[in-house]
Amino acid sequence: MNILAAVIIMLVSVVPLITRNPHHLPIAYDDQYHLAHQARFVDIPVLGNDIDAGAGTLRVVAVGGVNGGRAEIIEGRTVRVTVDWASYAVWSGAGGPPGRVAYGYYIISNGYARSQGMWAVWYLPDMIV
Question: Helix, strand or coil for residue 99?
Answer without folding.
Answer: strand
